[in-house]
Design brief:
By secondary structure, the chain is of the alpha/beta class. It has a single domain, classed as P-loop containing nucleotide triphosphate hydrolases (Rossmann fold), CATH 3.40.50. Helix content is 39%, strand content 16%. It contains eight helices and seven strands. Strands 3-4-2-5-1-6-7 form a seven-stranded mixed sheet, with helices on both faces. Strand 6, helix 8 and strand 7 form a beta-alpha-beta unit. Helix 4 crosses helix 6. The chain starts with a strand and ends with a strand.
């Protein structure tokens, strides 16, 4: 089962994602939690101590990994085909609740030069995690609707939209719902 948790910032997406991941792990499922929020906090929600959480290098910022996967040795030219199945084993962190956590990070494009290789790795990794892995995957999405435009939640089985009592929060969830229907997400729920 692949579950994405989305909504406006500050409505409790991370708490919902953490509780779900812990619940499935407690029921003896193999669980991978993905923190796809640019301000990652899922590690703390999953009980990983602050000092260890602060040492997690997001995949998008792991320049050695990005280079290893995409480098052709020629400047400005990178590989589009590479394997990503080793990334979970090599870069996920085990939480005290028996959930593996993978922090995706975000692409920081201002002044960073070409982010094409990092985007290619993140895209391929998400595709692999959502389509090919046989485990429960819970994704704490970034706030807002941007991720829907990039098709990040396209392959999930369930999209949980989390809202607060504000009109802006409800409107954000309405937009996410509309985009999810358009993308073909089979089950969409409101929390």
């Amino acid at each position: 089962m692949k579950i994405a948790v989305a909504g406006k910032g500050g409505v409790g997406k991370t708490v919902v994602a953490g509780v779900l991941a812990s619940f499935f792990a407690e029921k003896s499922f193999k669980v991978l939690a993905i923190d796809a929020d640019p301000s990652p906090n899922l590690a703390l929600t999953l009980g990983i101590p602050l000092d260890k959480a602060n040492k997690i290098v997001p995949i998008s910022e792991n320049t050695g990994l990005i280079e290893q996967k995409t480098s052709t040795g020629m400047g400005g030219v990178y590989r589009l085909t590479f394997t990503v199945k080793d990334i979970v084993e090599d870069f996920s962190v085990k939480s005290p609740y028996h959930v593996n956590l993978l922090v995706m990070g975000t692409i920081r494009s201002a002044g960073a030069g070409c982010t094409c290789p990092a985007n290619a790795v993140i895209r391929a990794l998400l595709q692999h995690l959502l389509v090919e892995r046989d485990e429960v995957v819970v994704i704490d999405m970034e706030a807002g609707v941007e991720h829907m435009g990039r098709g990040t939640a396209k392959h999930v089985d369930v999209l949980l939209t989390v809202t607060g009592p504000s009109l802006k929060s409800i409107e954000t969830v309405r937009k996410i719902h509309s985009l999810a229907v358009e993308a073909g997400v089979p089950k969409i729920f409101l929390v």
